[in-house]
Amino acid sequence: MKAALQAIRGMNDVLPEEAARWLAFERKVEDLFERWGYRNIRMPLVEHTALFRRAIGEATDIVEKEMYSWRDELNGEDLTLRPEGTASCVRAAIEHNLLYDGPKRLWYAGPMYRHERPQKGRYRQFHQYGAEALGYPGPDVDAELIILCARLWRELGLEGIRLELNTIGSPDERARYRADLIRHLEAHHAQLDADARRRLHTNPLRVLDSKNPAVQAVVAGAPDMMQYLGEASLVHFEGLQQLLAAAGVGYAVNPKLVRGLDYYNLTVFEWIADRLGAQGTVCGGGRYDGLFALIGGKPAPAIGFALGCERLIGLLADSGRAPAPRLPDAYIVHQGEGTLEPAFALSDALRAAGFAVVQHAGGGSFKSQMKKADASGARLALILGEDELRAAAVTVKPLRDGRPQWREPHATLAQRFPELIKAH
Ligand code: HAM
Question: Which fold has domain 16-170+230-318?
Fold first, then answer.
């Protein structure tokens, strides 16, 4: 026998029991997006590598070491499996001139790929739902997106997800801050770890969220971004905070929150579930007013977020709020000459009326079929044998409450079925 092949590390199968949780989660998220006026967009999983290099930034972890990139030998193109959705979404908006008649609210979903070290809550293939509000300068739409998240956590029944908020100003303001931050970090070079030293000149803002206590001590004395903000940036941030307060959305301003992608300006935010430990960020986003121009489009302000499905569904499972999978209402048992075709007709009629029906397949004795019916979790077994066929009826056997079976004429079954399901 050949050795069995296995899935790639960090890329997981979702087996049926868990997939039922995914489906329920996906329905809720998608329903909420649609109710808020966001429209679905679907982008390819593969893009030109240049798109992500330019959008996410050369000096980010994602571009430096996490992308699945390759040269397509057939036509010599450099391609990448998308590590996130914002770059593709903006690329699509530019390519199809989506903003020609005004701003757009969009959502997307699907797998993203990052070559990270797999651990609980961190995978190489993971799934996001993203929302992007394109063409809106904010801060009203900044508040809208954050309030939408707060509403989603409530509708999912999730508690203990806190919001961290920050502003990273305009590119000019950030450049001045960056220069002063580098000066400060250089003055404390001896206390920095290898990671911080490496980032010092490539991406010094990322040193701010270092987890190393020695580096944190240096960061504590670093210049404060707020001091570098001009009037317009401050007004934007103030405006957002007022709207969040009015909507009753609690938050903490975290001046060290900078996010791992370079396209952001002004508003950045993360939703964190402390219960999840190190991989506790369930959702992150921010404003990216420069991205359209950066990838060759007409400038347009924009903001969005993406949430991590694995982390949120994990939270739902841990909190016991995972929905039970849908069990069949009926299991159709059929045996004897000429019973299979009417069994199909019966299943079809009940399914068309909206019921969940499993029809036995694969033959077998009456006893073994009844065992399967019981194991299926169905409320009722509907038995179709030669006797029933002659009588134009089915035998209805309640499977859950031990009540006796009876014979029900075909003529009344469909009509009585809803009450039978309720009663048993
Ligand atoms: P991000 O912070 O890189 O942002 O990812 C968003 C969320 O995806 C994270 O908060 C986390 O829940 C989940 N996530 C990220 N990496 C992994 C992983 N390796 N395994 C499991 N879950 C993960 C973005 O991707 C931006 N595109 C968000 C955005 C949209 N900003 C503006 N618009």
Answer: BirA Bifunctional Protein; domain 2 (3.30.930)
